[in-house]
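May I ask you for just one protein sequence along with its backbone structure tokens in two labelled lines?

_____
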Amino acid sequence: MADGTATRGADVFSEFSAPVREALSERGFTTPTEPQRRAIPPLAHDRNALVIAPTGTGKTETAMLPVFDAIAESDFDDSEREGFSALYITPLRALNRDMRDRLTWWGETLDIDIDVRHGDTTQYQRRQQAEDPPDVLVTTPETLQAMLTGSKLRKALAGVDHVVVDEVHELAAAKRGVQLSVALERLQVLAGSFQRIGLSATVGSPTEVARFLTGDRPFEVIEIDAGSAIEFSVHHPTVTQKDEQLSRELATDETIASHVRVIRDIVSDHSSTLIFVNTRQTAEALGSRFKKLGEPIEVHHGSLSKDVRIDVEDRFKNGSLDGLVCTSSMELGIDVGEVDHVVQYGSPREVARLLQRVGRAGHHRDRISHGTVITSSPDDTLEALAIARRATEGIVEPARIHHASLDTVANQIIGIVMDEGEVSARRAYQIVTAAYPFANLDKQTFREVIRELSSNRLVWLEEDADRLEKSSGTWQYFYANLSMIPDEETYDVYDMSSRGQIGTLDERFVLNFAEPGAAFIQRGEMWRINDIDDDETQVNVTPIEDPSGEVPSWTGAEIPVPAHVANEVGEMRAAAAKQLATGANKEAVGRDLARRYPADVSTITSAIEPIERQIIGEYPIPTADRLVIEAQAQTVVINSPHGHRINETLGRLLAALVGQRTGASVGLDVSPYRIELELPRQASIGDVTAVFDETDPMHVEAILELALKKADALKFTLAQVAAKFGALKRYQGRERFGGDRLMAALEDTPVYDEAVREVFHTDLAVPETTALLERYHTDELTIATTRERTPIGVDGRSHGKELLVPSNADAGVIEAVRDRIQDDNVRLLCLHCTDWEQKKPVRRVRDQPRCPRCEATRIACLNPWDEDTPKAVRGGTLEEDTDADRLQRRAHRSASLIQSHGKQAAIALAARGVGPQTAARIIGNLREDETEFYRDILKQEQQYARTQSFWD
């Protein structure tokens, strides 16, 4: 192709060869889009580039037209052409299918072979691709891993001249992307230098992502402003008379009815609407409402079977469905035809997520994407306003690349050995560190990873010769670990009436909640469990009409709200408070904020109502520069608008140090705006403020690592990382959570180092929290305290999964909780004589338990599997790291409850995640009937399920 770097407008197309120009004309491409106009010239000159442009602006053609032109202009005819010319790598198999369909026309027109390869590709197709490689192969990162080790495929890969990575932002922030970065270096060893092209709709740190893509080789960034092509509005529904009838029809409260009504009206006003939600359980619950109303709206998420997903995609595309309730998998450009509006239900939590989602709408008509964010609480509204403003101005979060992830190093060392049969450690180090995420990996750490692999018999290390060779475990490990996605068990859900698969449930849900007779929602419909086949990891169900049931609680971390978004919420609160304090009314403040943020005055007014009450009560306003700590009984809330990761880090630090001061565990729950601590009886708000005063910011990281050793979060991650090192067999059953022995065995290894690094990277923000404490010690950050709850502190974010559970499901769920607890076993232990101990179901516990031997009423009620507490009470020998004093205190608190409240205390103590302190709080609540008692127990169990990994 001629030099077209300076070409403009339609001249960009005129520089292509005749076959491509004719195809463009036939396809109706007369004028290039802005990304094509700016990106095609450098791409046509084989330069590496990252192209960032809104969805629907022709990014795929932008990348592939120069590639097609290069292939068409090749000096070789079809009979002489060997190997793949280009790879098109996508993060999802569904995108593979879309790309093949999208590129097939070009291939047929230009006589270029295009094919797809992923995990579901048949053996016959794979053999054909090895024998007669297509010119362009569309594949996934994991499939490329496998291809690099096959002898025939390696020969085919040696011809690669171009690699296009789609949705590169999605991969840059994940370990599977870091794995891909090394795979591209392995490919470069095989094929020599090749052009690298990255495509994305949103990137907050373009230079960093381009370095990730290219291995820090020369590159260009072509970025089209996404914010200017997108319009947002944030809306908080108000309850109207219409919602009274709708709430009865849906068997829910009027607030949720108003949400459903507003979304239904938006769908009705448009021809095709995507309704994004943040969790699969919200998708199911919302979808069930629309199904009950008979609306042509279906559900789409990753736990539904492939056939179900393809069916709803096709029905939406052909106009049979007006709306699709979907999760993050639909962000990545799966082709569902024209979308003319996007609804985001609840704050999208991140700027990039909002741009990616709303960017799916409107381009086919007027190149402006339209989206509406529906919010449910004051926090939700203010957060959505901050995100919408930042999105309009193109202020996107930076990609958080996993630098130096050691389990990825281990995985890729095995891959390199598989590639080459035997290789020097020096050579393997050069290949790995050529990838940008590993550029600063030191040789000593690399050597320790190799030694760990050798000790696990995954490679043979000959130290003197500096040589790595395959061992008996190499091949099996490699093909079992093509992906860096954590290996977690899922159960297939089968409809017994049709024998078809309807989706999946994660193992944690099955173990904790699923049992024969239980009901739940999936695919927007109600199902009852017939039986669970653990050997086949299968749940067999039948459809039911009964509206009672639980929404499946799929595993998955909450989308973290970044600090800068939470800080802006604090700024909005401060600005509104200043005006309200000087006499302005809510409406006037709302009108002022509406000039800067995309929402109606009513929506903003509802969001600042707690701020008005805060001012009336003369409470301080929490901002980025002021934390407000409030306490009521043993609950302490630190109002901290600093986002999830900083609050998570600060919360764990406070829990660990307050626990250390008092010698008892501290409960922790975190949101972007609050840290909630449940203190032991001997602690107070003064212990919390003392931590701020006495903690050296430089010691934060060491304190947190020490605290993590007792937390399930680290043990869970350690088990996953250990599997990637081959340090344990692939997980089967519940034993993954038995991490104490694993921790002891691996503490001085790179496996442990990587687990800590991953928890710090994924969940925490240590440098930022250290800076926060430094600001406190230099008086740049202040702390205000109050010994009562404030309006802002109480008005926390409303969780969608709680709001969306049908209200009349309550009776059935409460009854199930009552029956389950009554059938659960407890261990009764007399603390007076310590001789009598007995296991029995709760229903057989007396109203006032008494020791049959000594007649004492000091009876502790313990978990049936608790062997340590009776030993501690009797002064027996315990494992070295077991805290006997803590077990004894817990037993005596339990016995005091039983002595005071009898069987009622035993019922509370038998609940999941309920200890003596929480049981006392549940019992102490004033309530009208027994149902309220069990409802409080259920709420606590749900809370425990959400926060379990944060309890030491």
The chain has six domains: 11-225, 229-392, 406-480, 490-543, 620-789, 807-950. The first helix runs from residue 11 to 14.
